């Protein structure tokens, strides 16, 4: 019973909706029109996060970026002044595979087999030269089995993989109003 | 297990309180005195352009002539206008397709054109400025434009200011869809959603 009470006190002491320690999303105004977002998520199996924003609490939310699991910070820059922004984070999980690659005049064509039945989509992930991690570079609809990537110079000699991803639970929502 | 449930219950209560306490939300960006408006529109299909609701297709790779499928909204003169919409490119075998235009009716030409290159680069056709690389196939992108007629036209991509352009006075109108630019070519399919307008 004592433990129950302590849990309740801890939850009340934290900002609204942030008591789930797995996904505490925090935000702050770095300048009147730049918002910094930070989080930490070390749960096993988490393959990355989707960061979303909206200017109405009920949405619609727009994806800002799919981010590798090592990424724990994002700056949303040059924002609309005197506007309230809402942010939330969503973890995703899923297996990776090596796609077949075919060269194109302006990029690379990828082909793979869809072995998952319930994916929310596929991520094409890239590991650039001199990088020690894979970052999402394209988001594809469920049941997709091919895509073309128009490559930038540092993407032509990189390593690629495909992830069938499933979205997980949403984080707390961070609400901040820009100034200026 | 009980402790865990208790913690979650308290947290949920806090979330609900937060929602209830939130002030009335305004969708439009930038401060002050916006009034929602609903301008009428016509649909324009030229060449291999096909419009189906808010889905716009260029079905050919023709690199010349008028190839477009668009909505043309009603003309406005003076004041400040705001446009908001979300687009998603569902296929782009071609390149350099204009997605959104602010047309200067007084000068009989496009004044601001937001276009996409194969690969996802969003750019301003006049001047070539890169606005963002967010226009990849499958990604939903939010666009807000604020046009102070006779002063300035600002473009926000996913909430961030990406382009500012001096504006003359006169009559203007908004267009959206898929439009082959002079150096562009289809095929392309673009889906727009959440189209809203305000004035002040």
TrEMBL record, chain B:
Signal peptide, first to last residue: 1-27
Highest taxon listed in the record's lineage: Bacteria
Keywords: Signal
Keyword Signal on entry: yes
Name of protein: LamG domain-containing protein
Originating organism: Streptomyces dysideae
């Amino acid at each position: 019973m004592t433990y129950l009470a302590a849990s309740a006190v801890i939850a009340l002491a934290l900002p609204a909706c942030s008591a789930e320690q797995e996904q505490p999303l925090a935000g702050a105004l770095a300048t009147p029109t730049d918002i910094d977002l930070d989080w930490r998520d070390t749960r096993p199996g988490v393959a990355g996060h989707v960061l979303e924003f909206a200017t109405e609490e009920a949405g619609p939310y727009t994806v800002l970026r799919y981010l590798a699991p090592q990424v724990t910070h994002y700056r949303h820059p040059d924002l609309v002044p005197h506007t309230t922004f809402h942010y939330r984070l969503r973890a995703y999980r899923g297996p990776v595979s090596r796609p077949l690659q075919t060269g194109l005049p302006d990029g690379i064509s990828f082909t793979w087999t869809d072995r998952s039945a319930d994916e929310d989509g596929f991520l094409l992930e890239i590991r650039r030269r001199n990088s020690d991690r894979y970052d999402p570079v394209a988001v594809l609809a469920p049941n997709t089995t091919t895509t073309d990537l128009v490559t930038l110079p540092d993407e032509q000699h990189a390593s690629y993989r495909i992830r069938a991803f499933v979205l997980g639970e949403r984080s707390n929502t961070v609400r901040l109003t820009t100034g200026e | 297990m009980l402790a865990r449930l208790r913690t979650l219950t308290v947290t949920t209560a806090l979330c609900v309180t937060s929602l209830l306490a939130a002030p009335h939300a305004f969708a439009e960006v930038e401060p002050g005195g916006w009034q929602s408006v609903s301008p009428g529109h016509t649909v324009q299909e030229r060449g291999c352009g096909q419009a189906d609701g808010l889905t716009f297709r260029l079905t050919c790779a023709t690199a010349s002539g008028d190839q477009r499928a668009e909505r043309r909204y009603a003309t406005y003169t003076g004041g400040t206008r705001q446009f908001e919409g979300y687009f998603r490119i569902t296929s782009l075998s071609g390149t350099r397709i204009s997605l959104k235009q602010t047309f200067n009716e007084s000068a009989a030409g496009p004044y601001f054109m937001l276009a996409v290159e194969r690969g996802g680069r969003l750019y301003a056709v006049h001047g070539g400025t890169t606005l963002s690389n967010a226009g990849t196939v499958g990604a939903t992108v939010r666009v807000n434009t604020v046009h102070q007629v006779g002063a300035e036209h600002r473009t926000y991509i996913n909430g961030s200011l990406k382009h500012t352009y001096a504006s003359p006075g006169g009559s203007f109108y908004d267009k959206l869809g898929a439009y082959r630019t002079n150096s562009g070519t289809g095929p392309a399919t673009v889906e727009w959603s959440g189209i809203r307008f305000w004035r002040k």
